[in-house]
Amino acid sequence: MSSNLTYADWIAVDWGTTHLRAWAMSADGTPRAEARSDDGMGRLARDAFEPALLALIEPWLGAGIMDVLACGMVGSRQGWAEAPYASVPTKPSELAPVPVATNDHRLRVWILPGLKQTAPPDVMRGEETQIAGFLAAAPGFDGVLCMPGTHAKWVQISAEEVVSFRTFMTGELFDLLAGHSVLRHSVAGEGTDDDAFREAVSETLSKPEMLAQRLFSIRAGQLLEGLSGQTARARLSGYLIGAELSAARPYWLGQDVVIAGAPALVHSYAMALATQGVTARTSDADPLTRLGLMRARSTLKESAS
User: What's the pLDDT score for residue 7?
Assistant: First the structure.
């Protein structure tokens, strides 16, 4: 979508550690335009957040006050303003956005809080808004939402509440091992081998304690057997996702599971669960953040009326 627009009814913002995305929204929740930049939370000082946002959304501002609803790491302790975590169990659709002071009189900004869990300790920021969007599209869902990514989330949902959740650093581990370990010499940058992936998932689920040894076997297989880079990449992914499934077994065994994320990751997780006889439904996560922010805007309008 083009960002060549001079007006929006309101603006939705997904502000993570590495990227900033914004949508010019119509009153009915239809995105009119999209813009993005690399001005993620991780590279900004506190006084740089408002200028970074204005650089992206200036074409969408009119003469009046513009409502901006944001989610993600922008609300962390190192972000624009801290939006304290809400404790589970809680309904993500009922989270109260936190107002943020701005210098530009045209902006009225709110940030959605994340969720926290004390036993065992865990946190999320940004995913709670996707969950709210998912529940807006699938009211009455009772089961588990798997959200693969850099830090994968497994979320137990009942009566529209997040009951509990677990976070796994699977995506980050994959990137570190593929790019900064001895495996960087063996793993291709792209491509896959579905059979090798499924085999690796099953091997790790069978004996998760062998994970560290199996990881090095990727390097040995490339040196001694000419293992292709694509097969090596598939095995690395399969071993790590298999370890995640082993630890997350209570979240998928006998549960109604939906996987929401980027299509390639969703496909991998669905294939991994299928090796265990679990048929998961799938969803593209991209529109869920906008749906969740739209629900938060409705909450704001209701509280103001």
Answer: 76
